[in-house]
Amino acid sequence: MAGNGKRRASTLTAGAWLLSACAAAIAMPDSPGQTTATRELPPQAREDVEAITRHLLQVRDTEHELSCARAVDNARSGVETMLEVGQRNLDGGYLGRADFDRMAAPLRTQLEALTLADCEGASGARREFYRCMSSDYNHVIACAKAHG
Fold first, then answer.
1. Measured distance CA(38)–CA(87) in Å, rounded
2. SS3 state at 131
3. Rounded to an integer, what distance in angstroms lies between the CA atom of residue 143 and that of residue 122?
4. pLDDT at 79 > cutoff 90
5. Distance (Å, whole) CA 27 – CA 95
6. Which residues contact 108 (CB under 8 A, 6 or more apart)?
7. What percent of the chain has pLDDT over 70?
């Protein structure tokens, strides 16, 4: 398989890995005995989060040419930001440890796969994911959803 040598055949498509990582934290609450979220978002904050999420799930620019350097930078930045926000939510008590770990582990794994070599060797949906990420107006979640 083309890539940086670290990528395995079992690596999920761009959309599947990202969406499954985020969905895992939402779909599977902490087990008894594990550290759980201690704070809830106020109703207005929950509404804001939902509105932002709807916005992020939309591809804004579909006409960009593939630029692997830009695409990898944008994709890595987006995943790193999600990990940072998840860590802040964990630290602030809005996210339980088990939920954070379920979300963060696959994101960290895929962060390693988002490389220039992977982009240059990509084909099919993976290449379209990188083309989508070549635009500064698209979020990694939207591109993953559209090309997963």
1. 14
2. helix
3. 15
4. yes
5. 13
6. 83
7. 75
pTM above 0.90, yes or no: no
Q: How far apart are CA 44 and CA 41, in angstroms?
A: 8
User: How big is the CA angle at 14 (ends 8 and 20), to the nearest 5 degrees?
Assistant: 95
Task: Give the span between the Cα atoms of 48 and 129, in whole angstroms.
Answer: 27
The span from the CA of 21 to the CA of 113, in Å, is 15
The region, left, alpha or beta by phi > 0 then psi within -120 to 50, assigned to residue 78 is alpha
What is the DSSP annotation of 87-104? Answer: HHHHHTTSS-HHHHHHHH
What is the distance in angstroms between the CA of the first residue and the CA of the last residue of the chain? Answer: 18
Per-residue confidence band for 12, with pLDDT thresholds at 50, 70 and 90: very low
- Number of Cβ within 10 Å of residue 37's Cβ equals 18
Cα–Cα dist 4/1, whole Å? 9
More confident residue, 14 or 138: 138
